[in-house]
Amino acid sequence: MATRTPTDIKLHQQTRKLELTFDDGFNCALSCEFLRVHSPSAEVRGHSASQAVLQLDKQQVNINDIEAVGNYAVKLVFDDGHDTGLYTWDYLYDLGKRADEYWQLYVDAVREAGHEHSG
Question: Is 0.85 surpassed by the pTM of this model?
Fold first, then answer.
């Protein structure tokens, strides 16, 4: 599968959403919370699935800055201090295409951990 490249990236800080349009016309708006809890960083994902750290209470998180990383990714700087994940174009595209599925898995994991998600 060819890498899809964003043609437009817009941060809507008031609604806490990152809107992406890709070169195939696919458009999505991902919440800052969704992006934060699905950070590709080792701090969140660990170095294996068993090391992943469930992110809790990120409903109000926002993005302060978006930094380009070459021609293949962006680094999102969140207002809770997290800034170590590189979001590649392929990863962002996948998050956009499968957002509902990934969100439900996250909400289920939060519930299994004995917490309630209020978002």
Answer: yes
**What's the pLDDT score for residue 22?**
98
- Residue 91, in any domain of the structure: yes
Tally of domains in the chain: 1
Number of other CB atoms surrounding residue 92 within 10 Å: 24
Residue 33 in contact with residue 58, Cβ under 8 Å?
yes
SS3 (DSSP) at 21: strand
Q: Is the pLDDT of residue 35 over 90?
A: yes
Measured in whole angstroms, how far is the alpha carbon of residue 91 from the centre of its chain? 9
Helix (H) or strand (E) holding 110: helix 99-112
CATH of the domain at 66: 3.30.2020.30
